[in-house]
Amino acid sequence: MKNFKPFYFLIVFSFLLANCSKDETTDSPENTNPGPFSVTILETRMDGANIGWTQSVDNDNDTVTYSIYLNSQRVSIGGSALAYNFTNLNPDTNHEGHIIAEDGKGGTTQVKFAFKTEPSIEEETIDNPDLELIGGQGAFTITPGSGIMSEETSVNLRIIFDDFKTQIPNDSIDYRIEWKTNGAFGSFETEVKEAAILDLDGIIYTSTNTATTTGEEKFMATLYSRPKGSTEAFTLNGSALTSLSIINEPNKKYFILDDIFYIEKHSDEECIISTNPIVTAPGIRNLLNNSFFVNKIENATNYSLTVASVKDGDGYEYGGRSWSWNNNSTQYPNDGVDTTDENGDLITLKGDFELYIYGGAINICNESYDATVSRLAATQATSQLTVTLE
Hints:
By secondary structure, this protein is mainly beta. The protein is 8% helix and 50% strand. The chain has helices at 5-27, 369-377; strands at residues 39-44, 49-53, 65-70, 73-79, 83-86, 94-102, 108-116, 140-143, 148-149, 154-161, 173-181, 186-188, 194-197, 203-207, 214-227, 235-247, 252-258, 260-275, 278-294, 300-311, 317-325, 337-340, 346-349, 353-363, 382-389.
């Protein structure tokens, strides 16, 4: 019996050790992966694209970062931003990628995306000095450059000039824009596939697609110009292309929104005209804002609004922004914005929610007032709104 005691104690010790290890493992909580999120292609260009995505919420309250892959190559790692701009890509090329949300503890969630860069555009060479007023031939694009729409939603297609210091329209040139669409999923507001307009306010396209779930609507705008008031023929300036994705899902709605600039009276105050001697004058401190206005959908459980970038009238580009809220949120209320239209008539900007993107306040006596108004009024921002339904 004496010879078996060490072996007996070894068995007992191993049994106790196994029990202790089992208890310690049971008490350790398991890490969960970051929550689901969705990716939206905000814009495609000949040489790149902008994408945005909703925030991934981690149930363990871990900090979530995002790594971005394109064509099997990692292009960004460990960032917290919810948008990315791809550059230096080849035109008319399909690209596939994915985003990995990571919680820093081994938990990951992956979402795929794909897009195709725009084809290169062959433009006719124009020898016309008047065209220099618009920054030279081909110095414009169509906005939105990409986006998602669902049935019975509308978008305003516009020509945007890359030369931000040039005022368009101006007093020297008349414009004519010919719009065309393949019309597979809707039409322009005139219920036609082709239309011509003589200004730059844009043209409304409405999707009426109910027969299919997905598709791509293509558009082309051709720009012509001539001296102001002239009776001579319009001269070709160039063309631009864009496309929009049409997606119908039972539990989602997709909208493309433009920013709205407005001036709102804030308070009466005196401003200083000169300091020596001090001269003051009565004035008004105005609020100058650019916002998106969103109407409430009664059976919506979530709203997600993403804008890739914001450019002011001087061409300065600000980073993209994202918002997320629901019908019970009080964070973005529209408390009733009263402003004046171009005729000076009082109007109220509609929308249950207001999302500020850019703004400021300045007194009308300030010598920079007109320049500030022009700069903010020329702000360019287009957002992708996704509404999740019950």
